Prior knowledge:
By secondary structure, the protein is mostly helical. It is built from 15 helices and 10 strands. The strands form 5 sheets. The chain has a two-stranded antiparallel ribbon. A two-stranded antiparallel sheet has the order 3-4.
Amino acid sequence: MWNISVIFCMIFLSGTTVWGSSYEPSDFPSLISSIRISQPVDFCGEKVPIDNQGVYEGLEKELLLSLWSRSQVILWMKRVGRYMPFIEKTLRQNRMPDDLKYVAIVESSLLPHIGSSKRAIGYWQFIKSTGLGYDLTINSDIDERRNIFKSTQAAIRYFNKLYGDFGSWTLAAAAYNMGEYGLKSRISRQKTSDFYNLYLPLETQRYLFKIVAVKIILSNPEKYGFQLTKEDLYPPVQFDKVQVECPGSVPLQMIAEASGTYYKTIKELNPEIRGRNLSRGNHTLAIPKGAAKDFYARYKTLYDKWQAEKQVTHKAKTVKKKKKRIYVVKRGDNLSSIAARFKIPLSKLLKWNRLKYKSPLHVGKRLIVSQ
């Protein structure tokens, strides 16, 4: 009797056709050969000294851990197709090193909602104070750390500032991870500005090696057995942008209906929106490609209808409220006699006025006797 795990191993290693499905053979190098680093390595044009045994071991470790999680690397590569064209273009426009794009992969795996124990959120993992400092809107309604366009612009500005502070992209990356003040104090105490000779928090020591490991793998994925085609990659998101002015809180479902799509689609296109409503103010929203045509006409129709329904509901509540009849307690009254006088069950009189049977009555107290 064949063990089922043996059968699956034979299927994936041989490319056998089973149950009508064809599996391509698994063809990738061993982990041992994969982590042998021979070529010159750099980050943003700055040499990574792999001739230093400690540096070599640190980089080798991150390569090994990344390659062991092959499924994660495949997801990185697929998401790169969706987000990297914009990140690369923005880096070029701002004359920033292309290697900075790998920071976003290490920080978030290119996922908008991912968070850290330090309450960093989004593609570039900004903490709230830093995000606010780089003009990202972060409040109970909007969190632009989750917006790939706004957060990438903020990250570029921050990296530009860090490079100005330290004169090195390697140190800028370290500061991005641990904070510029912590890094400056360590440089001052240890009397060196060479990243590879600084004793830094273990997370920061690993941080640069993680980025470089991602660069090595994604710069030559075929070498490591990742044979993805262009069709395998997630395509860039296609969308139209619209400006929506909200005099008050507006249901996001209304935006979805005006766009001819679903609530879920609007949330996915605009991950920075928190909750079910758009807050008061002017909003730039992404909607499905082609939906901008006639969007404003549909939105106006839906908004006017919603406002009319709100007014009807408000009037109904006002009328209902006006129907309440009030009785002012007089000397000698008790709850039973008042209920009998107005021909209402005592239980309703108690419920309407949030009273108990033995609750004391005082002359002048106002009681609801009709609803």
